[in-house]
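Ligand: coenzyme A. Inputs:
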Amino acid sequence: MEYQTERLILRLWKQSDREPFAAMNASPEVMRYFPNTRTREESDNMVNAVEQILADKGWGLWAVEEKSSGAFIGFVGLNIPGYELPFSPVIEIGWRLDKPFWGKGYAPEAARKALEIGFNQYAMDEIVAFTALENQPSQRVMEKIGMRRCEEFDHPALKQGQPLCRHVLYRITKNQML
Ligand SMILES: CC(C)(COP(=O)(O)OP(=O)(O)OC[C@H]1O[C@@H](n2cnc3c(N)ncnc32)[C@H](O)[C@@H]1OP(=O)(O)O)[C@@H](O)C(=O)NCCC(=O)NCCS
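Predicted complex:
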C-alpha cells in the first residue's frame, strides 16, 4: 500500500533505502536528540522490525520518498512504543528525516497523511507523540499538525537527570487535525 501527498510518497521500504537510512542514523546531527547514533547493523535491524509491523498491521513507520527526485528521505508513521510509558497503551506518530530535507515542511506534510490513515482507515481514537524537551524542531511538527501539548515525563529508558531524559507528550484526536 502506498500513499501520496502533494510532494511525497509514503510507501513500503525498499532494499535501496537501507544504505541512506543507515547513513542518516550514523549522523550525529540527525541523531542529536537521541542517546546514540546507530551502526549499519542496528539500522538494518530497525528496518527489519518496521517491515514486519507494516506487513502484519498494514500501518507503521512508512519510508518517505520525495516525488521530485525519487530520493528516500527518511520515515514518518505510526508505531506502538516498545516499552512501558506513564501513559501506555498508546499509538505514537514519529518522524526522522535526513538533514538535506529539513525545513521544507515535509515532516508535517507526511504526518498529516499518517494521522488521516490512522483515524480514517484504522479507526484509531487518539494518537500521541513525544520527544525530548530539547527537541524543538520535533515539537514544532507536533504543533503544526494540531497536536496538543500535555504533560512532561522522564523517559523510562534514559537515566534521570541526563539532559535528554525529560520528555514532553502531545496528543491528538481526529477532530483536532490541522
Ligand atoms: C524533526 C524533523 C522531522 C522536522 O522535519 P521538517 O520536515 O524539517 O519539519 P519542518 O520543515 O516543518 O520544520 C520544523 C522545525 O524544524 C526546525 N528546522 C527547520 N529546518 C532546520 C534546519 N535546517 N536545522 C535545524 N532545525 C531546522 C525549525 O524549528 C522548524 O520550525 P519552523 O517551521 O517553525 O521554523 C527533522 O528535523 C528531523 O528528522 N530531525 C532529526 C530526527 C528527530 O529528531 N526526529 C524526531 C524524534 S521525536
